[in-house]
């Protein structure tokens, strides 16, 4: 009976040890295995985040480029015009860039032309200011001496004298000068000046015009 009791206790202890070993083996390791179990998803999640951030950055860059081309098409007038060689197809980026370059070059030419026009206008303004000052001095001098110049020749007579002299000179100029080309004009004009614009010739023209006006006036 003692032997049987000891055998039964030994069997119970053996079964208990076996069950404990099996239960222990089925429980996951809380040190190494558990650490590996949590660490692997973290690495994978980090890669996903990097990939997602890279994808978003690339998409943002593409969107910025597309917006830039859209803005160019909206700003450049030639990009808005219908290109019959392209038809209804979407305008390529290369065409947009080329049309933009052409438009910028056109704007540079227009700017240069406007700068030249502004320079010319400034010179005209300066000349008008000088004329204004001279006329103001003439008016002031006339206001200071209102009786001065009453016996002088009128402006109409002066104009008639000038017109008569210019008409005579133009007749000789028209008969002697050829304006077919600039070369012929250059070759003839100096000889005309030497022949028809001598002091004695001009003196005779002026005297003749004055005699003619004297006859008309009196």
TrEMBL record:
What residue spans carry the Polar residues bias annotation?
14-29
Residues forming the BHLH domain are 49-107
Name any Gene Ontology BP term.
positive regulation of transcription by RNA polymerase II
Keyword Ligase (UniProt): no
Q: Which GO terms describe its molecular function?
A: DNA-binding transcription factor activity, RNA polymerase II-specific; protein dimerization activity; RNA polymerase II cis-regulatory region sequence-specific DNA binding; RNA polymerase II-specific DNA-binding transcription factor binding
* SMART domains xref list: HLH
Which gene produces this protein?
Mlx
Q: How does the record describe its quaternary structure?
A: Efficient DNA binding requires dimerization with another bHLH protein. Binds DNA as a heterodimer with MAD1, MAD4, MNT, WBSCR14 and MLXIP. Can also bind DNA as a homodimer.
Q: Which UniProt keywords apply?
A: Activator, Coiled coil, Cytoplasm, DNA-binding, Nucleus, Phosphoprotein, Repressor, Transcription, Transcription regulation
Ranges of biased composition (kind: Basic and acidic residues)? 36-47, 55-64
Which residue stretches, if any, does this entry annotate as coiled coil? 104-131
Record-linked Pfam families: HLH (PF00010)
The function of this protein is:
Transcription regulator. Forms a sequence-specific DNA-binding protein complex with MAD1, MAD4, MNT, WBSCR14 and MLXIP which recognizes the core sequence 5'-CACGTG-3'. The TCFL4-MAD1, TCFL4-MAD4, TCFL4-WBSCR14 complexes are transcriptional repressors. Plays a role in transcriptional activation of glycolytic target genes. Involved in glucose-responsive gene regulation.
Q: Where is this region: Disordered?
A: 1-64
Which coarse location class applies to the principal site listed for this UniProt protein?
cytoplasm
Record-linked CDD domains: bHLHzip_Mlx
Q: Does the keyword rRNA-binding apply?
A: no
Q: Name it.
A: Max-like protein X
GO cellular-component term (any): cytoplasm
Q: Which domain of life is it from?
A: Eukaryota
Matching SUPFAM superfamilies: HLH, helix-loop-helix DNA-binding domain
Which cellular compartments is it found in? Cytoplasm; Nucleus
């Amino acid at each position: 009976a003692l032997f049987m009791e000891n055998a039964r206790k030994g069997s119970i202890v053996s079964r208990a040890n076996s069950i404990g070993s099996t239960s222990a083996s089925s429980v996951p390791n809380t040190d190494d295995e558990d650490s590996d179990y949590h660490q692997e998803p973290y690495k994978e999640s980090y890669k996903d985040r990097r990939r997602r951030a890279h994808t978003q950055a690339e998409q943002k860059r593409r969107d910025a480029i597309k917006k830039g081309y859209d803005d160019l098409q909206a700003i450049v007038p030639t990009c808005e015009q219908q290109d019959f060689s392209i038809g209804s197809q979407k305008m390529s980026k290369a065409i947009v860039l080329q049309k933009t370059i052409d438009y910028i070059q056109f704007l540079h030419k227009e700017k240069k032309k406007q700068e030249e026009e502004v320079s010319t206008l400034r010179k005209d303004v300066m000349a008008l200011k000088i004329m204004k000052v001279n006329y103001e001095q003439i008016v002031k001098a006339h206001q200071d001496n209102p009786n001065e110049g009453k016996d002088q020749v009128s402006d109409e007579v002066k104009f008639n004298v000038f017109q008569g002299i210019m008409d005579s000179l133009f007749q000789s100029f028209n008969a002697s000068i050829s304006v077919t080309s600039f070369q012929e004009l250059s070759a003839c004009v100096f000889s005309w000046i030497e022949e028809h614009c001598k002091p004695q010739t001009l003196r005779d023209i002026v005297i003749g015009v004055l005699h003619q006006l004297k006859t008309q006036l009196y």
